[in-house]
C-alpha cells in the first residue's frame, strides 16, 4: 500500500497531533514523559507507521523484517517507563487519529488492521523483555568532562553496573535538563564490564549542547543500545571506515574492539574534519597507529576558525587538505584488484550522505557501503519493497 504510506507522510503532523490529542486526553499523566514542545514529540510516529503500511500486504501478517524492527522499537520505548499494557491504549489513539486523513473505507480498514498488528507485536516484545529481566534503561553519573575544542566534549559516565553493547551501537540519552528529549550517542570504547562509558558529543543542536555542557555529578539516563555495524563480520575484504566529525568515536570503538580480539580485520580509518584543530583526539589516533591501525586525517580547510579554541595536534599527526575527502579515500584505497573493500561511513547525516554518493560516483558498489549517521531519522524512509523480501 505505497500510496497509503505516501498519504500518511503528506499529513504527518496532522495525524500525529490527532493521535496525541486522543492519547493524552485518555492518559493525561503520560504527557510529562514527553518533550515540553509538542513539535519535538513523536517526530517519527507517522513516518514509522507509513513505512509499515508500505511493507505490508492486505490480509497478510507483518513481514519478518518489519516485525524485527518493531520489536527493537518496543524494547527502545521501555525506557519511558510505560508498561506493555499501554499499547492497547495507544492502539485506540492511533485508530482515532485516522479521522483526519479522509481515508476510504478500504484504506481505513487496512490501516486499522495494520495498527492492531503493530501494537500487538510491540506489546509482546515489551512483555518478553520484562520477563527476561532486561533493564529498560541505565542511570549513569558524569564523572569527567573534557572540552578539546569549543564545539566538542568528551564525557565519561559511570553506571555502577555492567552495560553491555556492541561496537557501533548507539544509546538514546537524556538528562534532567532535557525533559522528554533524547539524543543518540555512540560509545568511544568497547564495553568492558565496568559500567564506564565514554561519549564524544558535538554541540550541534539544542539537546546536544545541553549534554556537551554536562558537569561532573550530573546524572544521565541511557536507554537500551540498538543499531550497530557489521564491519568486522561482513567479508574478507579490507574494512575502511570514513569517520566524519564525532563519528570518530565509532571508528575508535571498532578499532579498539578489533585490537582486543586480535582480529585480522583491523579497520583502516580516514578521519574527516573541517580543519586541523577539529581533529580533537590526535594523541589517541597516534597511539592506534603505533598499534597497527592506519589512521589518515583529512581536513576541508587549512586554517582553524579562530573561535574553535583547539589544542595543538600530537607530534607527527599530519593531515591532507581536500575539499572532497572521499576522493582522498578512493585514491588511497585499492578498488580494482583482489577482494573489494568494505566501507563504513559514520557521522552527521548530511556528510555521510554526501560521502556515500561520492563513493558510488567513483565506482564503489552500494553493496560495499554501510552507513551509520545521525541528525536525520532515516529508519522509516520509503525503500525498495524487494529489499525486504
Query: Per the principal axes of the C-alpha atoms, what is the gross shape?
Result: globular
> Could you tell me the strand content as a percent range?
15-25%
Question: How many strands, what sense, and barrel or not for the largest sheet?
Answer: 7 strands, antiparallel
CATH secondary-structure class of the largest domain: Alpha Beta
Q: What would you give as the CATH superfamily of the largest domain?
A: Nucleotide-binding domain of ferredoxin-NADP reductase (FNR) module
Q: Helix fraction?
A: 25-40%
Number of domains: 3
CATH architecture type of the largest domain: 3-Layer(aba) Sandwich
Number of helices in the DSSP assignment: 11
Output the radius of gyration: 22 Å
The CATH topology of the largest domain comes to Rossmann fold
Give the tally of β-strands.
13
Low-pLDDT segments, ≥5 res: 383-389
Strand-and-helix sequence, N→C?
HHHHHHEEEEEHEEEHEHEEHEHE
Query: Would you tell me the overall average pLDDT?
Result: 89
The rounded distance between the terminal residues' Cα atoms is 15 Å
Q: Pairing-aware structural class of the strands and helices?
A: alpha/beta
Structure description:
By secondary structure, this protein is an alpha/beta fold. It has three domains: 2-133, Globin-like (Orthogonal Bundle); 137-227, Elongation Factor Tu (Ef-tu), domain 3 (Beta Barrel); 239-374, 3-Layer(aba) Sandwich (Rossmann fold), CATH 3.40.50. 35% of the residues lie in helices and 20% in strands. It has eleven helices and 13 strands. It has helices at 2-10, 12-26, 45-54, 64-77, 86-96, 105-131, 206-212, 248-260, 282-290, 325-332, 349-361; strands spanning 137-149, 152-158, 169-175, 183-185, 196-202, 219-223, 226-227, 239-244, 268-273, 295-299, 320-321, 342-348, 369-374. The strands form two sheets. Strands 1, 2, 3, 4, 5, 6 and 7 form a seven-stranded antiparallel β-sheet that branches. A hairpin with a 7-residue loop joins strand 3 and strand 4 (183-185). Helix 1 (2-10) packs antiparallel against helix 3, helix 2 (12-26) packs across helix 5 and helix 5 packs antiparallel against helix 6 (105-131). The radius of gyration is 22 Å and the shape is globular. Residues 383-389 have low confidence and may be disordered.
Amino acid at each position: 500500500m505505497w500510496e497509503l504510506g505516501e498519504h500518511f507522510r503528506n499529513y504527518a503532523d496532522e495525524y500525529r497531533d490527532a493521535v496525541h490529542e486522543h492519547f493524552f486526553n485518555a492518559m493525561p499523566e503520560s504527557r510529562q514523559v514527553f518533550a515540553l514542545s509538542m513539535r519535538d514529540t513523536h517526530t517519527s510516529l507517522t513516518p514509522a507507521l507509513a513505512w509499515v503500511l508500505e511493507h505490508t500486504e492486505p490480509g497478510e501478517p507483518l513481514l519478518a523484517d518489519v516485525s524485527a524492527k518493531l520489536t527493537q522499537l518496543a524494547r527502545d520505548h521501555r525506557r519511558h517507563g510505560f508498561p506493555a499494557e499501554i499499547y492497547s491504549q495507544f492502539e485506540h489513539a492511533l485508530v482515532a487519529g485516522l479521522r483526519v486523513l479522509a481515508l476510504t473505507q478500504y484504506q481505513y480498514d487496512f490501516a486499522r488492521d495494520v495498527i492492531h498488528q503493530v501494537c500487538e507485536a510491540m506489546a509482546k516484545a515489551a512483555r518478553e523483555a520484562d520477563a527476561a529481566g532486561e533493564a529498560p534503561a541505565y542511570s549513569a553519573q558524569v564523572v569527567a568532562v573534557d572540552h578539546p575544542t569549543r564545539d566538542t566534549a568528551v564525557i565519561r559516565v559511570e553506571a555502577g553496573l555492567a552495560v553491555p553493547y556492541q561496537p557501533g551501537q548507539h544509546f538514546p540519552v537524556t538528562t534532567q535538563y532535557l525533559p522528554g528529549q533524547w539524543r543518540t550517542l555512540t560509545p568511544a570504547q568497547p564495553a568492558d564490564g565496568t559500567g564506564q562509558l565514554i561519549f564524544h558529543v558535538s554541540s550541534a543542536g539544542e539537546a546536544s549542547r545541553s549534554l556537551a555542557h554536562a558537569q561532573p555529578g550530573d546524572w544521565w539516563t541511557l536507554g537500551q543500545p540498538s543499531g550497530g555495524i557489521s564491519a568486522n563480520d561482513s567479508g574478507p575484504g579490507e574494512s575502511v571506515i570514513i569517520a566524519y566529525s564525532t563519528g570518530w568515536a565509532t571508528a575508535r570503538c571498532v578499532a579498539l574492539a578489533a585490537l582486543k580480539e586480535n582480529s585480522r580485520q583491523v579497520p583502516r580509518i580516514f578521519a574527516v574534519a573541517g580543519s586541523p584543530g577539529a581533529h580533537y583526539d590526535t594523541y589517541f589516533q597516534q597511539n592506534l597507529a603505533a598499534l597497527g591501525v592506519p589512521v589518515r586525517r583529512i581536513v576541508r580547510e587549512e586554517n582553524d576558525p579562530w573561535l574553535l579554541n583547539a589544542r595543538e595536534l600530537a607530534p607527527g599527526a599530519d593531515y591532507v587538505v581536500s575539499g572532497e575527502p572521499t576522493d582522498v579515500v578512493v585514491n588511497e584505497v585499492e578498488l580494482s584488484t583482489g577482494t573489494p573493500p568494505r566501507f563504513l561511513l559514520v557521522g552527521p547525516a548530511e556528510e555521510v550522505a554526501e560521502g556515500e554518493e561520492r563513493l558510488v560516483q567513483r565506482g564503489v558498489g552500494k553493496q560495499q557501503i554501510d552507513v551509520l549517521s545521525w541528525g536525520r531519522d532515516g529508519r522509516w524512509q520509503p525503500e525498495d519493497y524487494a529489499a525486504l523480501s
